[in-house]
Design goal:
Structural class of chain A: alpha+beta
Strand order of the largest sheet of chain A: 1-2-10-13-12-11-9
CATH topology of the domain at 1-45 and 90-189 and 263-275 in chain B: Ku70, Chain: A, Domain 2
Helix content of chain B: 10-25%
Strand content of chain A: 25-35%
Largest sheet of chain A: 7 strands, mixed, barrel
Distance between the termini of chain B: 25 Å
Mean pLDDT of chain B: 87
Order of helices and strands of chain A: EEEEEEEEHEEHEEEHHH
CATH topology of the domain at 7-27 and 85-164 in chain A: Ku70, Chain: A, Domain 2
Largest interface: A-B, 165 and 175 residues
Number of strands of chain A: 13
Order of helices and strands of chain B: EEEEEEEHEEEHEEEHHHEH
Structural class of chain B: alpha+beta
Distance between the termini of chain A: 44 Å
Helix content of chain A: 25-40%
Number of helices of chain B: 6
Shape of chain B: extended
Mean pLDDT of chain A: 92
Shape of chain A: extended
CATH architecture of the domain at 1-45 and 90-189 and 263-275 in chain B: Beta Barrel
Strand content of chain B: 25-35%
Largest sheet of chain B: 8 strands, mixed
Number of helices of chain A: 5
Oligomer: heterodimer
Chain lengths: 262, 275
């Protein structure tokens, strides 16, 4: 079944506009629970209360405030908030392009397919140009009363528009300090290198399955039938041995595994 | 994060309460184990607004039972999975905890892949790993080795009632975990129903290539990701504060879990081995 577009816009590149429709590229499969009232086993409601008096405050009486210092707030009225909204626009403005490897994984937030909307000639030409240049575009747009910054990329035969986190949100390793403590020896480094190389391969996402999700679902099904299995507690284990010893043993056991596989 | 209840759940998802690590556990490669703590590598939005009452007093979000109208405390609510309309199976924290086999609780790096080979489609959120006391050497060993080889380690593990697929990167000597989406959580162009590719005209392709070339930069500059909305909100707040317009002051007990936490400071302390 084809997905529904969540938004329509136009990629603006100089004076050229390429109309696109956005579709979420993500399909969340997290097991969803509801919060229930333990006694009635019914879904709960939520409301705002004054924590001192315990009294409910009706939603039309709730105000929004920005905390300028502990206990001091500037109240932003509905009118203020509306004024802060960006003017609506359909433009996905590309401000610049960067080589595809330059944006670190920390910035990427959510991917959307940007599929062609009507006109397709320019669309597929842009896909090919982005792919040939191995570039991605830094994009600005306004969607549902909110500013977004993102990255436009060609993936396969189509365009993907990623939302990127804003500059303030990401903590970079540069902001942090170097690690204290003893440095590993040359021998340890050489063994660790050997070990990691033995474990080296290609990234194949299909190799990884959310098995825990299946276990939770299976458990729920059994419990629904009144046949919940008894679950045992797990005690965590601890291991302490000299680093070079453990490295040597790791390499040895991997070699044995390889031999058996051969 | 805890298993999500309905979307309405008031839980601040990735909040780093009181500077405690998000998770503590063991990172392993081969038979080497490195006890580590996980801290978010992202800060929450600076403009989260507080809900206030008519007199400016900060409000709390509470669950209540619809029938009785009575407020419910944390120990009066449970987590339920809807198996049929309004028929729920209750699942406890203990059951969720016990459903994770022991081997799934460690971040066991079974595979290493070229760090730049993972498509950005997979990345979800970043966390810095800091070594527990006494494990600095093994931590450094892994970080340095990964750095030199340009590899990232891949693992799955269960944390707080959810299984995560992660890629561990060595970032200037610091290990960073990026949680990733599982393959079945991503749609393909066919799933979405995108039309089949039509061969474009060569002239149009080269027109776009030229446009790209003229707007190309060598480096990515995060300044291009400035949050305009937040900036204009902060400006308005300043203006109103100056004019003493809509400013309220309330007596409030400081809730330690709500205190603004300086993540960078906490991370520096954890990396520096100081308490």
């Amino acid at each position: 079944m084809a997905a529904r577009a969540i938004w329509k816009g136009e990629i603006k590149l100089g004076t050229t506009k390429v109309p696109v429709k956005l579709y979420s590229a993500v399909q969340d499969r997290t097991v969803r629970f509801h919060v229930l009232d333990d006694r009635a086993k019914k879904r709960v409601k939520q409301h705002m209360v004054n924590p001192d008096s315990g009294e409910e405050v009706a939603s039309e009486e709730v105000q929004k405030g920005y905390e300028i210092e502990p206990g001091r707030y500037v109240i932003l009225t509905q009118e203020d908030l509306e004024k802060l909204q960006p003017p609506p626009s359909r433009d996905i403005e590309i401000v610049e392009f960067v080589p595809q490897t330059k944006i670190s994984e920390q910035w990427y937030e959510r991917p959307y397919y940007a599929g062609p909307d009507g006109e397709e000639k320019d669309y597929f030409a842009l896909v090919e140009a982005l792919r040939n240049k191995e570039s991605e575009g830094i994009a600005h747009w306004v969607m549902r009363n909110k500013y977004y910054a993102g990255a436009l990329r060609a993936v396969g035969d189509y365009l993907l528009l990623f939302t990127l986190r804003d500059a303030n949100e990401v903590i970079l390793a540069d902001d942090l300090t170097k690690l204290s403590g003893a440095a590993p020896t040359q021998k340890e480094l050489a063994m660790a290198k050997q070990l990691i190389e033995m474990l080296q391969g290609e990234f194949d996402p299909k190799e990884y399955k959310d098995e825990y999700r299946d276990r939770v679902m299976e458990f729920i099904e059994k419990k629904a039938k009144g046949r919940a299995p008894r679950l045992k507690a797990v005690k965590p284990k601890r291991q302490t041995a000299a680093l070079d010893n453990v490295l040597a043993k790791s390499i040895e056991s991997l070699r044995k595994k390889e031999k058996r596989a051969a | 994060m805890p298993p999500r209840a309905s979307r309405k759940q008031a839980e601040p998802e990735e909040e780093n309460a009181g500077g405690r690590p998000f998770w503590s556990g063991t990172l392993t490669f081969g038979l080497v184990s490195v006890p580590v703590s996980l801290f978010p590598a992202t800060r929450s939005n600076r403009t989260s607004l507080r809900m206030l009452g008519p007199d400016g007093q900060p409000l709390a979000r509470k669950y209540y039972a619809e029938k009785t109208g009575k407020d419910l405390d944390a120990d009066e609510v449970v987590r339920g999975f809807e198996v049929n309309k309004e028929k729920y199976v209750i699942v406890t924290d203990e059951e969720l905890e016990r459903l994770a086999p022991e081997k799934t609780r460690d971040i066991d790096l079974k595979q290493f892949v070229p760090a730049e080979s993972i498509p950005p489609l997979y990345f979800e959120r970043g966390y810095f790993l800091t070594p527990a006391a006494g494990s600095q050497k093994a931590y450094k060993l892994l970080a340095e080795t990964m750095d030199k080889s340009g590899l990232a380690g891949i693992a799955t593990f269960v944390m707080r009632g959810k299984e995560y697929l992660v890629a561990i990167f060595s970032d200037k000597g610091i290990l960073r975990a990026e949680t990733m989406r599982f393959a079945d959580e991503l749609r393909s162009p066919a799933d979405v129903g995108l039309p089949e590719k039509k061969a474009p005209a060569k002239a149009t392709v080269s027109k776009f290539e030229k446009m790209i070339a003229t707007k190309s930069k060598k480096q990515f500059s995060p300044a291009k990701l400035a949050d305009k909305q937040t900036d204009s909100l902060l400006k308005l707040v300043k203006k109103k504060e100056k004019k003493r317009e809509n400013v309220v002051k309330v007596e409030e007990e400081v809730d330690t879990d709500r205190k603004v936490v300086d993540l960078v400071k906490i991370l520096k302390q954890s990396l520096g081995g100081k308490k």
